Amino acid sequence: MSNNAGFNVLTFELPDGSTSTVTVKRLLNAGYAGKNQEEVRAHIDELAELGVPAPTTTPALYPVSPYLAQQTSQVQVQHSETSGESEWAIIIDDNGNELLTVASDHTDRKLETLGVAWSKNASPDVLSNKAWPLSEIKNRFDNIILRGWVGQNRDLIQEAPMTALLEPTYWLNVLEERGERIPGTILLSGTITMKTGPNQFADAWGVSLEDPEFGTISAEYQVEKMSQPIG
Question: Pfam families of this UniProt entry (predicted)?
Fold first, then answer.
């Protein structure tokens, strides 16, 4: 939904059954954000062989159009070479509360070879409709598992602890320095390594965060190719 100012308004269910609302004014996607930056550099070299331009610095941070933060069950794409990415996301709601949820940064892989920032603005960031208060889980990130799966058979394509990525505290400090640790901000974490075997260019994507106390939150969506253009 959107408010009168044209901003997307997202609502999240919290563990106690209450809800939290955020009017999305800033959307940021982190990239190359693995905690082991040597592995990140090796991954950048691999991507360079596929034609993806290397970032000028790591970790990277890409501003994204705020309307692309969506809670949806369907993503429409222009061609078959797009895929999701399992990520966690920080939400700063309209009351200034900091929350954690799971998200998929759906990315145009063809466009990525021309510009990573461009590819981030080609499709939605799909977020769960549930979230956890960040203050209540900040001491157990090691125990929270991030997963991604693809296709109608839900083949596992990504799995790692949250701590494989730079932790929320790192990015909250970055937001503070940028003057963006304020209501209306959503930041996605960057993603974890994909497993070889499953086809990332699948017709469905799903992502989840699993916590031993709060359970599992997830987001799933179908990927639908648009009809052919005329002209």
Answer: DUF2848
